Amino acid sequence: MDIAARPAHEEDLPVLLSLYRDMEAEQVALKPMWRLADGLPEPVDTALKDAIADPDQVLLLGTLDGAPLGLCLAGTAGLLPQADGERVGEVRLIFTEPEARGVGVAAAMLEAALGELRGRGLSKFDVRVLPGHRNAKNFFEAAGFAARLIVMHHDDAND
Q: Which residues are paired to 58 by β-bridges?
């Protein structure tokens, strides 16, 4: 089994968009607010194209035996002024198709993204996990992550 993570290219846009839409459907089923606050801005194909071109972002395609089955988007975020300019690496999105889960595709993408960010001098990292997404939480905890913040949300329209 050949598992790999490689930088995404413009010719990957159709498959990246398809993977993103599958991820979006899964996330919105858990929390409808995800599409409005945590996903990519529409039009998503433009956002993906911009991520490929942006040297501050890392957009990876995860493959299993050459088949593209996952995507990962990472970048950096600022910290408070008392961090003296230090930045935190942020894995914004990571997704694998269900048939590629548990075999190492996500782990390869996470390792590649963190490696790229470490190469930029970063040593602190955040990932985003929806409440109730137990498999994702377990995956990141196994990789050494721990929760540091839970964002609570209320929508008057849903009362």
A: 74
